[in-house]
């Protein structure tokens, strides 16, 4: 599409057929700064020239509509393209599914007869069904207490309201969820991403203050992406806008054959070098063709790799760029061990390393090595912390195991001691039981003897009683005989 055709197309009204998916169109983005909330935003250009703003939400890890009444465009009924209407039991009202050409989303609205405006709602239980979309000019009729309105579509499919009471049928502003949020919570001043676990070694925190928070880039595959810098990772996160849903997705971890997100030596174009007292090393100012930024690097002769640094006192001076040379970046202190290394440019002005070879008596180009950018440093630092934490966990586990083993030994000793005490107690109990048994035996013998004595005494007592009874009986008989004898003698006399 030519520039003239793009301009003429942007002046055409937005057209939509009910039930259809969003029509792909040329998306134009612009980065802005909200003067009130002090944050960077991105604006999506609408065909009529208006802008719909998004802001990055750290908590949700995506872009969301910018909540600012000063920045947001006024959305009216002409921006809504109704599909169909349903009854919602939860709110006891009719809900209209309408596509918003500003947000590129299918949204839900109810009509307020009090304000004579549409109000956006969010009812998750109502799921949009493309097959329910109605056709024709009339969508529905709504009956209020003193008014009846008819919801129609104009020639482009946009919403049109006709009232049988009020003569004013002009398109009115819509009360969106974003505006309701502003009315409820007010405007919130944005806060920077907090970074508490990253050191300022090599000037990283100073460096990030010089970077733009947002970037808009288009790769060779003509894919436009929004890049958001993350202080926690030291790199830009990549997001793509999905026009079918009006939302953003994080594509930082998705491979694109036409994109590259890893800085390598082939992207570094050296400008000039300068000595840094703070680092006690020579710093090379390079243009990074991948990020389009001017970056600072030092050379590590032990790894033959470039490492990113930032010295804020070494302000880049474009006038110092010398296309002919790079001011001889050498390491004489390492000549004995590693040989002299010179940093230069190749025929494509890309950075290269040359090392003197004693064998060939000439400088040999060294192979490329991975570049240690701040993102790599942060990842290594995080990995180091994770390794240290893991090591601490291992040591703690070993210490706990030692303590556990010691406790087990102590418990075993205590168990042995308790076992010994229990055995001694059992022995004493057994001895006591034996003594008790012996005493019971002795008592049983005594009881038997007593029983025998009692039996003998009872027998003797019974014999004595019988003897006494016999004596009494004999005495009675003798007395009787005596009386009889005396009677006989008396008779004889």
TrEMBL record:
Record-given protein name: Ig-like domain-containing protein
GO aspect biological process, one term: autophagy
InterPro entries named among the record's database cross-references: Sepa-1
Lineage: Eukaryota, Metazoa, Ecdysozoa, Nematoda, Chromadorea
Highest taxon, organism lineage: Eukaryota
Cellular component terms (Gene Ontology): cytoplasm
């Amino acid at each position: 599409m030519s520039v003239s055709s793009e301009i003429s197309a942007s002046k055409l009204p937005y057209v939509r057929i009910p039930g259809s998916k969003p029509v792909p169109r040329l998306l134009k983005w612009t980065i802005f700064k909200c003067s009130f909330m002090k944050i960077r935003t991105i604006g999506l250009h609408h065909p009529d020239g208006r802008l719909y703003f998004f802001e990055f939400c750290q908590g949700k890890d995506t872009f969301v509509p910018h909540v600012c009444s000063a920045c947001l465009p006024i959305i009216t009924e002409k921006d809504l393209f109704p599909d169909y209407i349903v009854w919602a039991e939860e709110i006891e009202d009719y809900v209209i599914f309408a596509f918003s050409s500003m947000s590129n989303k299918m949204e839900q609205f109810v009509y307020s007869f009090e304000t004579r405006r549409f109000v956006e709602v969010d009812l998750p239980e109502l799921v949009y069904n493309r097959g329910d979309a109605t056709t024709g000019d009339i969508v529905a009729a709504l009956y209020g207490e003193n008014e009846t309105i008819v919801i129609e579509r104009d020639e482009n499919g946009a919403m049109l309201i006709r009232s049988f009471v009020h003569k004013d049928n002009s398109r009115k502003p819509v009360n969106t969820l974003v505006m309701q949020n502003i009315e409820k919570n007010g405007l919130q001043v944005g806060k920077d991403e907090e970074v508490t676990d990253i050191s300022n070694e090599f000037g990283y925190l100073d460096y990030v203050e010089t970077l733009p928070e947002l970037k808009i880039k288009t790769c060779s595959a003509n894919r436009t992406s929004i890049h958001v810098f993350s202080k926690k990772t030291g790199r830009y996160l990549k997001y793509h806008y999905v026009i079918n849903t009006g939302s953003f997705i994080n594509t930082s971890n998705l491979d694109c054959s036409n994109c590259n997100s890893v800085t390598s030596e082939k992207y570094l174009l050296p400008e000039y070098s300068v000595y840094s007292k703070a680092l006690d090393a020579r710093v090379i100012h390079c243009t990074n063709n991948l990020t389009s930024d001017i970056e600072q690097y030092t050379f590590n002769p032990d790894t033959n790799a470039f490492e990113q640094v930032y010295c804020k006192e070494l302000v880049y001076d474009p006038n110092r760029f010398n296309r002919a040379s790079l001011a001889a970046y050498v390491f004489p202190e390492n000549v004995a061990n590693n040989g002299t290394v010179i940093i230069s440019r190749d025929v494509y002005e890309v950075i290269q390393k040359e090392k003197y070879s004693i064998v060939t008596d000439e400088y040999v180009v060294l192979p490329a090595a991975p570049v240690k950018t701040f993102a790599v440093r942060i990842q290594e630092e995080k990995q180091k912390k994770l390794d240290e934490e893991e090591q601490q966990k291992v040591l703690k586990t070993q210490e706990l195991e030692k303590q556990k083993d010691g406790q087990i030994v102590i418990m075993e000793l205590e168990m042995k001691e308790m076992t010994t005490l229990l055995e001694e107690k059992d022995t004493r109990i057994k001895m006591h039981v034996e003594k008790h048994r012996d005493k019971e035996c002795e008592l049983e013998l005594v009881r038997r003897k007593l029983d025998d004595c009692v039996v003998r005494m009872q027998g003797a007592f019974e014999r004595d009683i019988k003897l006494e009874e016999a004596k009494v009986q004999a005495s009675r008989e003798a007395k009787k005989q005596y009386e009889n004898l005396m009677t006989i003698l008396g008779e004889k006399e």
